[in-house]
Amino acid sequence: MQIRQATYSDRDAWDDYALCHPDGSAYHLFAWKEAVEGSYGFRGVYLLAENECGICGILPMIDFRVPFFSRVLVSLPYCDAGGVLADNLEIEQSLIERALLSARKLRAQIKLRSFKPLFSCGQNRTDKVSMILNLPDSSESLLVGFKSKLRSQIKKTSRDGVTAQLGKAELFDAFYDVFAENMHELGSPVHAHLWLKSVVSKYKDRVRIGVALTPEKTPAAAGILLLHSSRVSVPWASSLRRYNSMSPNMLLYSTFLAFAADHGYRQFDFGRSTPGEGTYRFKKQWGAEPQQLYWYENRVPAKAKRNQTSNKEGFSAIVSPGKKFAENVWQRLPRSGTDWLGPKIRKYISL
Q1: CATH at 166
Q2: Could you tell me the pTM of the whole model?
Q3: How far apart are CA 122 and CA 282, in angstroms?
Q4: Handedness of CA 169, 241, 40, 127 (dihedral sign)
Q5: DSSP-derived secondary structure letter, 10
Q6: Are residues 225 and 141 in the same domain?
Q7: pLDDT tens per residue, range 305-340
């Protein structure tokens, strides 16, 4: 077995391995690397293990550099989990050891985000879960399995004249308008238009965009769906507060779920949540169950520690005093300003 850094010529073989691996996700695909490099300019460090039979393990990482802070190899930024995929524990460990060696050479730390526990990866943060729903073989069976209250909420949106569209790049602008406004309402910097459009472009047939429309055909909720061979994931979804009474989010997610069930996907990944919070309860009402996320971080260089602190799980994180104050200030800034400044900040936030 040998381990080397993957090149573009490895793209198809890499994707085949990620699509066939039982722990693989859409985030493991080479498209994520291409989108990050092409929009935010960070370099991908994609490690590939191979033997006489071909690829036997992969570990995708992004060389994530934040000005004035330490350098980090992240697997992967802007999503819930990347992490290592391998045929066995020995290969998995070899890939992790090579990653640690690469980090030492770069004087960087490592963050590995995984759907499964890993070994010898440093401190582990376990306060986040991914909400996973196992899907039946059809949308009809899915609807029958919902509780009556949930079915009534979905039907009410249609009675109120809310409609849904499911497509690809042609719906991107409608999605981004909803997404940017929702981020402003939440007091959070928005991702760059170029980054999200790059994701849609690079994933090609493995992406869908959903939009829920008011009776006046105004986008009220929207989301992006990424497709793995067995699991679909929702990395970004938003709805606008002024349309909450119409519950467009209910129709958006029921449309996503129906598509996934009817196209033979086995699992629907609603994305990460903190147990007990509002998004956790929203996802759980669909029948989704929490799956532990494992976020590992090795020790940072001593000179960087003055900029960081540890939470109760022992996980290093950049200090963010006055977070609530900052959110309130951001909400009061004009959209024109936050839409311009937000992407310049959001680029450097790896979650």
Answers
A1: 3.40.630.30
A2: 0.88
A3: 32
A4: negative
A5: G
A6: yes
A7: 433 333 333 333 333 456 676 777 777 778 777 888
